[in-house]
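User: tokens in, sequence out, please.
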């Protein structure tokens, strides 16, 4: 019985490697939230709306005309 248990036992280094992988995966959402928050502080709602306007603007339309129309 003891022999069977020792044969089925996983080495400690292997367990450490697997568990460290789990710990890293658990940290990803937190890191992602930090990046999103930092980006939100730099890239605000005004910039987002400006980018949407630029993307939706037809090619060849002068920016001054569109800005006059939006005001």
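Assistant: Sequence out:
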């Amino acid at each position: 019985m003891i022999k069977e248990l020792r044969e089925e036992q996983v080495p400690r280094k292997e367990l450490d490697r697997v568990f460290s992988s789990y710990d890293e995966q658990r940290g990803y959402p937190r890191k992602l939230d930090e990046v999103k928050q930092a980006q939100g502080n730099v890239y605000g709602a005004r910039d987002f709306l400006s980018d949407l306007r630029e993307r939706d603007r037809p090619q060849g339309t002068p920016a001054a005309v569109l800005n006059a129309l939006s005001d």
